[in-house]
Amino acid sequence: MLRIHDLRVSVAGKEILQGINLEINPGETHAIMGPNGSGKSTLASVLAGRADYEVLGGEVSFMGKDLLDLAPEDRAREGLFLAFQYPVEIPGVSNANFLKAAVNEVRKYRGQEPLDAMEFLALMKDKAKLVEMDPSMLSRSLNEGFSGGEKKRNEIFQMAMLEPVLAILDETDSGLDIDALRIVAEGVNKLQNEHRSVVLITHYQRLLNYIVPDHVHVLYKGRIVKSGGKELALELEEKGYDWIKNEVAQAAV
Amino acid sequence: MKTTTESTDLRSKFAAEFEVIESGMNGGSKSHIHSIRRAAIEQFTVLGFPTIRNEEWKYTNVQSLVNRNYVLSFRHEAVLDRAAIEPFLLDSLNAYVLVFVNGFFCETLSSLPAVQGKIVVGSLAASQQAYGMVIREHFAQHADYSSDAFTALNTAFAHDGAFVWVPDGQVLDRPVHIVSVADARSSDVFAQPRHLIVLGKNSQARFVETSGTVGEHMGFQNGATEIYVGEDAVAEYYRVQDSGGQSALVNTLNVHQEQSSTFTTVTATLDGLFVRNNVNILLNGERAEAHLNGLYLPTASQHVDNHTLVDHAKPNCNSNELYKGVLDGNATGVFNGKVLVRPDAQKTNAFQSNRNVLLSETASINSKPQLEIFADDVKCSHGATIGQLDEEALFYLRARGLGEDRAKALLLYAFASDVLDTIALAPLREHLEIRVAQRLHKDF
Ligand SMILES: Nc1ncnc2c1ncn2[C@@H]1O[C@H](COP(=O)(O)OP(=O)(O)OP(=O)(O)O)[C@@H](O)[C@H]1O
Ligand SMILES: [Mg+2]
Hints:
Helix content of chain A: 25-40%
Number of strands of chain B: 21
Largest interface: A-B, 30 and 24 residues
Strand order of the largest sheet of chain A: 6-9-10-3-11-12
Helix content of chain B: 10-25%
Shape of chain A: globular
Distance between the termini of chain B: 58 Å
Number of helices of chain B: 11
Largest sheet of chain B: 11 strands, mixed
Number of domains of chain B: 2
Order of helices and strands of chain A: EEEHEEHEEHHEHEHEHEEHH
Shape of chain B: globular
Oligomer: heterodimer
Bound molecules: adenosine-5'-triphosphate, magnesium ion
Low-confidence stretches of chain B: 1-7
Structural class of chain B: alpha/beta
Radius of gyration of chain A: 18 Å
């Protein structure tokens, strides 16, 4: 579904991603962990199509297409979804109106009829229930004045509405209280199936207790320096990153 | 050669026109109002049309506009039918409608209250006889013709316009819609509507003014409005400038507010070649409250200038000002917002904000807040921003599948809707929501 080959990316003249290789198949759950500033959000943003990054080299194919060639909206329409680490507040744009436009754009791209007002409302109610979102938030301006946790929940709600084939969740767990974490994780699990994949960017094992990953990767200084199964996350939780940093330092000698 | 000079020198043309009108007046030339007209034409002759050396006109150059060969509206019999003025009507307002063509009242196109009760809604010219006292008390008392050339010119030729008088304690049951059309079908035309609105103590009224040009030639309207808002009165005055074609507008709103009165004005400029809007508000009684908001969306080579003055002359008053602009193409804009807090005006609250989005490299705006504060116990703030659309927000929307144009339109509409939300008159707000959405290509 997604194949990243030797991706190198710089921001403001600084090389942040220094050769990323990653393959994600349908139905898989991957976790990407790693110290602060190692390039996790950069990777997610480049995949989603943010403009201020310069791709120095490498290829990314998504659903058989050259991902880096697509405009951000076309990536979304192809089924890529990024739950932002820091969702933007957009005053004056209502959550519901915006989502109706988004859902129908995606449907149009897929050759489906647009949803009418009634159908859309029903879908929204259904999905809001899935992530136990207060319906009053739907009529409010997009993320405006939302608490940290509410913003994260709104991201997952949008994901539920758009039904992507690949969802990248960038630290969706941070800022969520214990109950919200469970609700959101259950929501993600319900959306997953053998055609849909998830990438979880996280610092904590507790999310991975709910959404169990098939693969865990450690991103450090712009490279994936270690990959393993779900046990790797447990090991990191216990021992921190020093041993990995040491391994990398040793290898460099 | 002489004729060319005459036809292009609009100032002399107006001076000559004044003499012609005056000589045809018989006894009328001795009237109180005419003595004001005479003072005003003398003042205009001294001032002349402003140049960019005048600080108030630094970024708005009227020279090329006033050098055209206008037919002065007094020389022009205008007959328009309903179809021609249709674009300026707003049926959903269910309003009393006063239509002025080239500054003169057009009764057949207007719709007045079936029975005139205590409240007067009509034309200024027709009201001179019956309401001379009220008119004399207020005419040219609130619009300063000593320093502003356009106001002087308008005052000199003030003959017709809307006259609305809402006596003490009365409430106007419907909005009054003032429609000002320049008939430029056969030539460039210069028109000068003059409106007078007198609102007694504890009265209430709402007004909508739409203006524009019919025809292919240039329609220049130099309009002036005086509004007296009595003690405890509540008034709204909305200006909608949404005419296609060759439209030039200098529109000056002069408001005098008494104690505990509330006045709200919103100016929406969606179209027009050249627009200069002035709002001058005098807060002349304690606890008066003024809200001034504006939205302007010039494109191509359109020019929109909003000049506002809020004069806090008495203590405990509030003023609130929000002007927003979206400028595209080669459009140019000006915002100049002056807040004057006089020594007496303690406990003043005055807020002002001007925010602009430039959509093209060639669009520009000059934004200048001016605070002159002579009292010490006041709360005043102002801010001006000029920028592009928020890239983060744009990316967020695109990452959800919205195309770039649509995402931009959505953000622009959200930006503009702040101002539209301040329109309390629902049918007007709904109309403008649709128009603004169309202008910003928000096609859903
Ligand atoms: N626009 C930018 N200009 C300069 N440096 C940037 C920019 N964006 C990211 N960086 C730098 O790139 C590096 C990687 O940032 P990134 O946000 O990808 O880290 P991360 O792994 O997501 O960290 P965290 O765990 O704290 O979220 C950081 O050193 C960051 O400062
Ligand atoms: Mg990050």
